[in-house]
Amino acid sequence: MSSDSHPHSDAVLLREARVEDADRLTRIFLDSRAAALPYLTRVHSDEATLGWMTHVVLPDTDVWVAELPEGGGEAEPVGFVSVDGDELEHLYLRPDMRRRGIGTLLLAKARERSPQGLALHTFQRNSGARAFYERHGFTAVEFDDGSRNEENEPDVRYRWSPVG
After folding, report:
1. Domain 3-160, CATH 3.40.50.10260 — does that match?
2. Kind plus residue range of the DSSP H or E element containing 107
3. Out of 92, 96, 127, 137, which residue is the most buried by the measure of CB atoms under 10 Å away?
4. What is the pLDDT of residues 80-106, one digit of tens each?
5. The pTM is what?
6. Residue 46's closest CA among 21, 27, 18, 59?
């Protein structure tokens, strides 16, 4: 595939999420986790995950969607970020959209929404996410045995503070 077929980050549009995004954001969430974390135990059905996205994530957190124009048609969601105060709750991309600068744009939006700093959890075995956050100035501050999450998967807490 030529580099011209990859979207450039300047073509990405960021907008606030809407209720009608729930289906697409749920699909991005599920597909991203399946691709990046194939070892992870699924603890909820697709339907329950959609309910959680609809009734918890979208109304209770600050959610931004990354979109790309698709073939001259309507823009298609390719990722999202969810922030709750100073907690980066979720940052997920469609698996085919990784390593194109979209995650960096979503992270920049999260930092804009929480300029005093951000914290997050990710699974210890999620080496891709860990490398991404470390590349963007996050520091591991706590390791957990997995007892704090539904998946019982050991995780790590990261923190970012602005310089200055």
Report:
1. no
2. helix 102-113
3. 92
4. 999 999 999 999 999 999 999 999 999
5. 0.90
6. 27
